[in-house]
Amino acid sequence: MTFRDSAGEQHGLPARTAPSRTTASRCYYLVGPSGYPNFGDELIAATWLRYLARTDPGAEVWLDCHSPGPAQLLLGDLHPRLRCTDTLWRLCGEAPSADPWEVAAWVQEVVHDPGRAPRWDAGIALLGRADVVHLLGGGYLNALWPRHLGLIAGAAAAARRSGGRAAMTGQGLVPFPADATHLLRSLADRFDVVDVRDDPSAELLAGCAAAYRTCDDVFLAPPAPSPATAAREFVLCVQSDIGAHEVSTLAAKVLGMLRAWRAEPGQIAVVEGIPRVDRAVHSLLEHELDGAEFHPFRDVWRRGVPAAPGQTWISTRYHLHLVAAAAGAAGVALSVSPGYYATKHRSLIDLGSGWSMLDATSKRIPDRPDGTGFPAQVIRRCSQLKLSVAEAVYGPPPAVPVEPGAERGTRRRVLRPRWSRTGG
């Protein structure tokens, strides 16, 4: 497996020897913000679970998330041995304060001395036998949620205790608490694989030998357009949970764009990425757009995103931008948070999504975009990069059985590649 940096230089990532699947099964411990539900977070977890179902269906797989009950129901059929828990999330919440340094210190102490948190002793014991502790990708390790830095500290401590491998992939780390940057770099140096999805996150980890930059985890296997969903010409996904913009301001911006583009209500669909949160703007617009079609989260999750070539999207949601552009749709990324969402959308635009970006408070009405989404070669290249990341974390699926007797849990360091600033 190789990566190329921006100068075109090749860097190898030797895979660890995969253990025999006929002996004691591996224990893979995934960590992510699943179960809220949030379409992007669930899609990232689903992408990794499907990968592991293909490559190691006999492995014991745990998903540590803040909402394990809903996560089990949403994701439980994607790997035959998946179970959900919330140990690391609980430990982050039990830290004495929300200060990232205190959270990180507390979680590490508890992982190494479970007697300090006896209510979670069984969960900490499970952490202590994980072969891989993997922080799934997303935008949840940053200043918006400072307690979440404890997840990084906990993963590093758990891998040290078990002798397993620590990995984080597809991370969007900005904005990050300025006074915790050195702590982040110190923790990252204890990981075997550190993979980020945008340039600002790469710059934040500059100097960390383990770190490199590829793209979002969903590129491992982007969802195909669903033939079961009728695709309308204009599609909206506008959130109301992050940013300082009033719902009425967002509704006015969206309606102004649709009127300028002469979109008829019968040509419009509305997609919900988070239940209720993405319905607030639609609720203000539905009397103005009588005949528009609403796709609640449950339908999007079960049937797929109604994305197709020739569509025009307006989306504040990053992963809807990614999926729609991968399906060949054009769009405008409406930024509701310059320090958070703008970075996320910019990473996809720089990668070649063909979308434009507009601040939600801008008075400008853009022309209707006429792009065709990601070029096929970009999707292929990004998928190859993420497959290399997956094999760096879990090892390649064995072509032939490995001889019995390989030591379980042996930790093998990965040769560090340089930064790749091309994003794939």
TrEMBL record:
Descriptive protein name: Polysaccharide pyruvyl transferase family protein
Cited InterPro entries: Polysacch_pyruvyl_Trfase (IPR007345)
Annotated Pfam families: PS_pyruv_trans (PF04230)
Domain Polysaccharide pyruvyl transferase: 38-231
EC number: 2.4.-.-
Entry keyword Transmembrane helix: no
Alphabetical keyword list: Glycosyltransferase, Transferase
GO molecular function, one term: glycosyltransferase activity
